[in-house]
Amino acid sequence: MSYVGPDFDPPQPRRGRRRVLTVGLAALVPGALLGWVMYEAVGGDGGGSGNAAVQPSQAPSDQAPTDSTTSDDKPPGPTPTTDSTSAPAGSGSGSLDGRVVVIDPGHNPNNFRHTSEINRKVNIGTNWKECDTTGTSTNDGYSEAEFTLDVAHRMRTLLEKQGATVKFTQDGDRSWGPCVDERAEIGNKAHADAVVSIHADGAGSGQRGFHVILPGKVDEGAANTGPVVAPSRALGERIAGSFVRVTGDAPSNYIGDGTGLVTRKDLGGLNLSTVPKVFIECGNMRDSKDAAQLTSGAWRQKAAQGISEGIVSFLVK
Ligand code: ZN
User: Which CATH number do you get for residue 294?
Assistant: First the structure.
């Protein structure tokens, strides 16, 4: 669950030369499908250049759908274009030798027992935020914290096969937290080459799909994201592209204008990072169709693979 509050920053429109193409496509395809089409167009295999920006579309927004009968239709379905059971594309065994990846499994299964500790405010540079939150859950009670740890474990297995040193911010091995500032600090002190914070969202029924959250540019207090905004965006684009390809899912239909990318300046875990870092909201736990995926081990394996392949693509240049 992301920390959507009064200070929520809406996605920042970006300008780029693909705008004309985007507008053209927007007239032809629905928003959700447009997002996928754009990934394909700009190198959704994660192998494009680091600047292969996935531009937000100018399509009429289909954000915040309330009628599930209009939002449940998936696009004709991107099928994986490569053998998704093989090693991450473009990398051989040991391709991540010497590289450090920090995985931040969002929340903590025990946070709900420690509300006073996790409600304590910590300084995130731009303002003060709660140390941590409990996260969300499916309507049947499968918790986000359980989900994030499972995906993190699957990712660790995949990334270690590539030779990476993988560190966690928590592994269900502490009674609460860590706080968001400590989560950032763990990646910083590890001198991580990439950090990914794993989450699942708690939005309304009918709101579906994943989105990757990128750090916005902030320079206030202990927050100075200037040096990591660009590499974090590159990391996020690779992850989004790989996630679409491996899971076959379309990007979020309720945020990011079909791109699957959202920039925020209100997350301590991003504001305080001095290394490339993104969040991913893998789906919406409160939507029954997304929940069916999030509670499937087979789907979580695909999600872990999609994220991991994006990391590999970002690190192996
Ligand atoms: Zn979360």
Answer: 3.40.630.40
